User: Fold this.
Amino acid sequence: MVLLKGSLILFLLSFLFSPSSLFPQPIGKIFVKGNFHLSSGQIKDQMTTKEDRWWSHHQFDQRALEIDLIKISALYHRYGFLAAQVKADTSRGEGGKLDLLITIHEGIQTLVSGVEFSGAIHLPVGKLSRITATKFGDSLSVKGLKVDKERIISLYANNGYPYAQVEPSYQLSPDSTSARVLFQIREGDLVRYGEIKVWGLRSVRKNLVKRELTIKPGEIYCRSQIEESQQRIYSTGLFNYVRIYAQNPFEKPGNPDFIVSVMERESRWFGLRTGLGQDEQYDVTFDLTGEWGNRNIGGSGRKLTLSTTLRFQVLGNWANLKNSFAVTYTEPWFLHTRTPLSLKLYFDKGVKDKLLGYRIQRFGGDLDLSHEIRKNFILRADYSYERVDIFGVSPSMAEEIKEEEGITIRRRIGLSATNDTRDNVFVPHQGSWTQLSTSFYGGPLGGDRNFYRVIGSWCRYQELIKRLILANRLKLGLTQPFGSTREVPSTDWFFAGGGGSIRGYGEGSIGPKDTLGNAIERRILLVSNLELRFPLFWRLGGTVFLDGGGVWKDRDSISLNRLNLSIGYGVQIFTPVGPLRLDYGQRIVSEGVKPGGRFHFSILYCF
Assistant:
């Protein structure tokens, strides 16, 4: 009994005077001492341990702090401080919070005095030097040497030498201020593809898989071609799993066979989705869409989709507003080339207007062809046809209704070229996106209007320093009527202003207007944006921007002295579906531009 009481007392005492890990304590200030070459901000960015703030509470965690010290040491090693030492001390701060003191002994910084490659026979040393980040005069980074090792191995693997081995090393000077780097290379033997086999097929034909391959028997091995082949097979939409690997590399090291292993998706599928929306006449509408499809008709990879959409009025009297039907057919290899062809036919019977007594029926189709000329560069051609009939009124009244509601019979053919080298579609850091598109309406195609439309867009993204991105865009547009047409339909006018073009202005508010303030014909567009993007904290980012441009009726009315300009800033929160942003643009006052600004809430970046 006495032993039990003694144990209980010891337990209570140990609990009361236990380490802070049993009693989580808020973190006060974090101080950094001894850092001369790296800023305190750079060091704190490496740490999971953060100062406690009113908007974000952080508790002390000894294990997390130990990991932070390792991260800080690794940061110094990347900058050539190979002997850097880091330690942390705690003390009681204001309000009972725990202050941290990070003490750093940086040591000597080692710079690269030379880079050599040994054993390189089949690839020139100049090519190896260009792909490695380790250069003369740079700080020596052990992690950087490992990255360069993988780059050299990858280069050899893409040139027929997948067995190449690379060992980086360095020789320090007596005072450790410099080091000579050596990459010792053992190239191995040249490898060619042997037989290529496809495993795992059930209903898909073997030739559908092989035609997507960029590797052929007898050709020199290339790792990037294998990765591209996997991506192309995935893009067919027929498979859940794709893997390409050597079957017998030890038996036939110079000419191994390769296996394309796949797992098929179900060919037939059915989907049902709903959604709420609104249109010009009704505050809330309800859509019900059903789809049925077959993505592998007869094992050929051809796709057929049938869909129907019903729209209803939700508030007030429940009423049917729309009944549309569509069928889409896709031929993935048109004319035996990797040129997907898509044909869509749609029919909207229309709903009889209870007050006016007529019904507008639409029937049309779209034909789309696209071809990848080279990686990232795609050519696309499309043709669209639509027929509109109005039932319940006389032919003359039908023409008046078309004129009042802006209904036109449209026949269109278009061609576009797109080059996309962005490293990320939603949050690009590097690369560019360029597109030139032309559309031709009417003329020999028929229809109510004859005009052409040309739009050119160019966006570029540059990482100035780590995570600081300079983004800029230039967009030009021209619409011109011809033949018997004197004016461009309002549905094809250019509009600028708002969160997606020139911020600080109302949506579509920029452009010529009549005396009542209504928009008039707008044929020419110019939009230019310059934006600096940077991280803030957590999942938040910030931007500062300068927007400008204008919309004009024709070439004679263009005036670059009266451009619409704005300057502003914004914040973004990064989500799995892309950034959500809130921008504020302040209009720059000029002739015809009133002072003021505007907030814009949007999904994804402006460009």
In short: The CA atoms of residues 440 and 452 lie 4 Å apart.
